[in-house]
Amino acid sequence: MGNTATRVNKVGSVIIPVADQDKLIDFYVNAIGLEKRSDTPFGGDYRWVEVAPAGAETVIALAPPPPGGSSGNTQTGIALETTDIDAYHAELRSKNVDVDAEIMRMGDPVPPMFWFRDPEGNTLLVVEIR
């Protein structure tokens, strides 16, 4: 196999293609509780927007889809972590976020978890860490 060292040292961002950046910034900041890290114009009418949990290294970019690409109704593959899944689930429900009605509890070693959908139908997972 040879040298197993890599020149990549972290996951910098994951990207969700979105149609309405302002609406999604409001959702991820005010409903989900993330912070806006950047909002930078580029390439004419485009903006590069990043949101993330406070202190997190990896950010979620809310970017327009590439030319010919689509946005919305995507299983993002993103899992957010919380230490109190019951409180976070209740908080999201109180803010009218489209969350699963119940928290999935499969028993050890699988942690409690639930899914939520953003206003464009993109799905993210929330997992309780202990």
Structural overview:
This protein is α/β, with parallel strands linked by helices and 130 residues long. It has a single domain (13-65, 72-128), classed as Roll (2,3-Dihydroxybiphenyl 1,2-Dioxygenase, domain 1), CATH 3.10.180. 16% of the residues lie in helices and 35% in strands. It is built from two helices and eight strands. A four-stranded mixed beta sheet has the order 1-4-3-2, covered by helices on one side. Strands 5-8-7-6 form a four-stranded mixed beta sheet, covered by helices on one side. The chain starts with 12 loop residues before the first strand and ends with a strand.
What brief labels describe this structure?
130 residues, alpha/beta, 2,3-Dihydroxybiphenyl 1,2-Dioxygenase, domain 1, 4-stranded mixed β-sheet, globular
Can you describe this structure in just a few lines?
The chain is of the alpha/beta class and 130 residues long.
> Could you please say which CATH topology applies here?
2,3-Dihydroxybiphenyl 1,2-Dioxygenase, domain 1
CATH architectural name: Roll
Biggest β-sheet strands, sense, barrel = 4 strands, mixed
The mean pLDDT is 95
Oligomer: single chain
Report the uncertain regions.
none
Total strands: 8
Task: Reconstruct the topology from this structure.
Layout: E1 13-17, H1 21-31, E2 35-42, E3 46-52, E4 59-63, E5 75-82, H2 85-94, E6 98-99, E7 113-117, E8 123-128
Parallel strand pairs: 1-4, 5-8
Antiparallel strand pairs: 2-3, 3-4, 6-7, 7-8
